[in-house]
Amino acid sequence: MAELTNQFCESTGFAEVTLSQYGRYTGDADKPLLPFLNEKTVLTYFTGDSGSIKLGSSVHSVEAGMIVVLFPGQCVNCTAMEGTQISAMWAELSGEALSSVLMRAGLTPQKPILTPTVPADQSELVAAFTRLTDPEAQYGPLRATGLALELLDCLLRETPRPCQPKIANLQRYYVDKSIRFIKAKYPQDISVEDVAEYCGLNRSYLGKLFRDATGMTTQEYLIRHRMSIACSYLEHAAAPIATIARSVGYPNQLHFSRAFHKVFGIPPREWQKRNRKG
């Protein structure tokens, strides 16, 4: 018996995060970190004794277990308390998706500090930061970027009260969410009910939103998308019709042929004869 499991990953935009550099910092009270301007966003996790950090004109007290974000263009000065040593792990990041992740964590230039809800010895965030900044590790860019993305994921999961992103156009949001689901799941035997359940909406309500936005029903979009992919397979792939049917969500070849004929007016085999390339 064959068994296939499938988990849908709505990852739109999260790949747009770039890791530039990363490392660790340690400083004594008599040897403070010289003031500097940062061009990109620096995510910092403090691990040592208490101290202070000046971000622009604002001074903040910091201690072990705190996350501090140094936003671009800020003048930064970090100092340990008298007789203590301050230390931190840091990662310099950029990219269009970064600001939305930080906002969901409640981190903004006006509120650049938070304390995660999970103790350091149990924190996946700390573990990811430790692996990334390990001075003995020699990571390639792909592995390092993967750790940086893991770091951001842990940040959201260990944020005291993560903020939900504001949605300017709710109709467009649900339509786009439906389309992403259909494009990812069309090879499976999904229905309009599955799409509505994924969006958390009533089928009829989603159908109205979808028709108003696209001019077609959710079912029509699903069929047209499947047929578009099927045409590409018929045109280029040397595969039996039954295989193509299964590949676009039709376990039954007869049902596929009927749906294809309804859209294009001819059977899939005839369409293939007229349009076959190679």
From TrEMBL:
GO terms for molecular function: DNA-binding transcription factor activity; sequence-specific DNA binding. The keyword NAD does not apply. Keywords: DNA-binding, Transcription, Transcription regulation. Gene3D superfamilies: Homeodomain-like. It holds the Pfam family HTH_18. Residues 176-274 form the HTH araC/xylS-type domain. The keyword Heme does not apply. This is HTH araC/xylS-type domain-containing protein.
